[in-house]
């Protein structure tokens, strides 16, 4: 097997785009009394193998998203990813959709621990959660992450970025609005644009 985390084949029963849940989900469905609900029709209506083009403006304009990654032992980590602003306070795009299967997001200067990037180096699986609290809309993207270490590759989009993450989407789906609180964003002050 290749050491490249993105070259690994998906395990049997884990292909999320073939109209079926994985083994653990099927066990939970049976255990909690919903066996049979997620048939191929319902599954395919919920989960998609590509990102709709109409979602690009929504995703690119959000101020933040969350990612989930895991190391080679499957130990998980969740991280917040926020956008940066230029000198005049205008925000850069949060992410950029290159096509229906590929998006890019920047990695900015941080605490130098590289929790998420370190996980990506040994395990390419990534989960992304986007929430607009004003409209109470959320979507998820699951896929494979690859680091782009040439800081000039997308410098025209994100001048402050140190590097970038390319996500090859394998699954896209929305969620209902249940239990999402409605919140309004407050315009950040000049001091909030700076690292602490």
Characterization of the model:
It is a single chain. With 196 residues, this protein is of the alpha+beta class. The protein has 2 domains: 16-47, no CATH class; 52-175 and 188-193, Pnp Oxidase, Chain A, CATH 2.30.110.10. It is built from 4 helices and 7 strands, in the order αααββββαβββ. The chain is globular and about 55 Å long. It starts with 22 loop residues before the first helix and ends in a 21-residue tail after the last strand.
Compact description:
The protein has 196 residues and is an alpha+beta fold. 15% of the residues lie in helices and 29% in strands.
Could you name the key traits of this structure?
alpha+beta, 7 strands, 196 residues, Pnp Oxidase, Chain A, 7-stranded antiparallel sheet
Low-confidence stretches: 5-14
Strand order of the largest sheet: 2-1-5-6-7-4-3
**C-alpha termini separation:** 43 Å
CATH class of the largest domain: Mainly Beta
User: What is the helix content?
Assistant: 10-25%
- The tally of domains stands at 2
Fourth-tier CATH superfamily name of the largest domain = Electron Transport, Fmn-binding Protein, Chain A
Largest pleated sheet: 7 strands, antiparallel
Strand content: 25-35%
The rough form would be described as globular
Average pLDDT value? 88
Total strands: the figure is: 7
- CATH architecture heading of the largest domain: Roll
Rounded Rg: 18 Å
Helix count, DSSP H or I runs of 4 or more residues: 4
């Amino acid at each position: 097997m290749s050491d490249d985390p993105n070259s690994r084949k998906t395990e049997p029963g884990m292909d999320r785009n073939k109209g079926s849940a994985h083994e653990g989900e099927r066990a939970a469905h049976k255990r909690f009394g919903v066996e049979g609900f997620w048939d191929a029709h319902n599954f395919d209506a919920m989960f998609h193998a590509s990102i709709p083009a109409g979602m690009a403006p929504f995703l690119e304009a959000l101020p933040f998203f969350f990612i989930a990654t895991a190391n080679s032992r499957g130990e998980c980590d969740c991280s917040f990813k926020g956008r940066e602003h230029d000198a005049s306070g205008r925000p850069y795009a949060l992410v950029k959709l290159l096509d229906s299967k590929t998006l890019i997001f920047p990695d900015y200067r941080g605490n130098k621990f590289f929790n998420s990037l370190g996980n990506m180096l040994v395990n390419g699986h990534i989960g992304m959660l986007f929430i607009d609290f004003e409209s109470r809309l959320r979507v998820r993207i699951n896929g494979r992450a690859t680091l782009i270490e040439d800081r000039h590759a997308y410098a025209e989009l994100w001048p402050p970025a140190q590097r970038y993450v390319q996500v090859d989407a394998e699954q896209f789906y929305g969620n209902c609005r249940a239990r999402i609180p409605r919140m309004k964003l407050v315009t950040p002050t000049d001091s909030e644009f700076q690292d602490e």
